[in-house]
Amino acid sequence: MAQYLPLPVAFVQGNSFFHRLHPYPKLIWAVCSLVLAFSTRNPLFLFILFVVGIVLIVWAQVLTTYKRVLAILGPISLSLIVFQAIAPAFPQPWIPITRLGPFTIYQEGIYSGFSLLLRAWVGVNFAALMVLTTHPSDLFTSLQRLGVPHELNFIVSASIQLIPIVQREFMLVLSAQRSRGMKATGFGAAIPSIVPVFAGTIERVQQLSMSLESRAFGSKGNKTSLREVTVSAKDYLLSLLGVVVTVLGVYIAVSNREALDWSEIAFIPGWLSVTIVLMAAGIFVGIMVFLWRRSVR
User: Fold this and answer.
1) Which residue among 2, 11, 46, 79 is least packed, with the fewest CB closer than 10 Å?
2) What percent of the chain has pLDDT over 90?
3) How far is CA 273 from CA 7, 89, 169, 210, in A?
């Protein structure tokens, strides 16, 4: 059942360059990637950022886990191309390319759809790289040193750590139901499992609350962690590199905004636009039908 209800965004053990890297540069890269992605709509610029993120994920040896992330977000994000193609997020007038039944595909819509899709994937790439290669306790300690409020820091770190715990409990409940002859495949099997998993989560939160109170969580003073992470010159250098690249990228994107604006350039012919929209719609609808069939089985 795990293959149908994956919750893959969790730390992956490893010894790659990024696993040994301090959380600071990875956090800065994740923020900088969003800044760069939203500084322009140019699909070529965004595609280069996307490829860079994939290369870093492969280098970090977490591609197997990341593919499960794309398997969930990929088909859903393709709907952006479909909706934007027929209703672009651009000021009118729009340039029509061709008609698809009762709908008109607009040039600005294809351009906007690809831009939004690549923006989303760029952000996911670098955020996943940080989460999959950073131990939650290391992230907790690093955010604390940055001056992030202790309560907010704890919420972020606890949320990341609870994901695999809830997933494991969910799989245990499904296994117990399967051993009793109950339905254990598809999303329909998840409905009877929600109550025991939810009740177990509430109980876990209550235990966590009592544990925090017994350890004076709300008291003033310095907070400590079992895991200590030190910042090296390499970490500072990589953090600075991320900031410099972002500043240069934003400057290039802003100063060449008109040259990088391809919304009025017909770089995709009509037949290819129709093919892209139909493929995106087909994949999206296919995934929805697959999930529905799983739910009624």
Assistant:
1) 2
2) 25
3) 34, 17, 45, 58
The pTM score is: 0.75
CB 93 within 8 A of CB 104: no
10 half-sphere exposure, CB direction, 13 A CA radius: 14
Phi/psi region, residue 186 (left: phi>0; alpha: psi -120 to 50; beta: rest), is: left
Most confidently predicted of 176-185, 218-227, 244-253, 288-297: 244-253
pLDDT at 237: 95
Strand partners, 106: 96
Number of H helices, E strands in the chain: 12, 2
Percent of the chain with pLDDT over 70: 84
CB neighbourhood size of 32 (10 A):
22
Residue 163, C-beta contacts closer than 8 angstroms, at least 6 positions apart: 7, 9, 10
Tokens of 73: 């977000």
Nearest-angstrom CA–CA distance, 115 and 217: 44
DSSP E strand stretches across the chain: 96-100, 103-106
CA gap 237, 204 in Å, rounded: 41
Bond from prior residue into 93 cis (ω within 30 degrees of 0): yes
